[in-house]
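Comment thread on ticket #2218

A.B. wrote:
> Attaching the input chain for the structure job we discussed in standup.
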Amino acid sequence: MDRRQFLYGSACAVFLPNVAWSEPIKLRELYNKNKSFSDTALRLEGSKIEVRGYMAPPLKAETNFFVLTRRPMATCPFCESEAEWPSDIVAVYAKRKITPLPFNVPIIATGKLELGTYKDPELGFVSRLRLTDAKFERA
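C.D. wrote:
> Ran it. Output below, let me know if you need it in another format.
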């Protein structure tokens, strides 16, 4: 590599957007203790990120939607009145229909981070934080 190639490559790197977070983040890194969005979440809004967690039992079959939780949840939080729904969750909208995984299998979901209140027109699920165009894999 000569000096000209190095300078050109360095100049181009400055103008490239930060399109992905370098490593999976934990759900607790997206929220403050008062349940507001963290500085990390605000900084990464619109970026492609990876989040570690667990797939909550899906709300319905044949869907591209699931909820990522910080801890494993054996029951559907909307089906059991006794179940406590965690405040640190992420709604995940996958690119394709999902095949649910067992509730206790850790996963990494990757997608574009969106912040702000959104009500899913089909499911009625209200989310404050979500990943869109997402995919997931076992951790």
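A.B. wrote:
> Thanks. Noting for the ticket: The domain at 19-138 is CATH 2.40.50.140 (OB fold (Dihydrolipoamide Acetyltransferase, E2P)).
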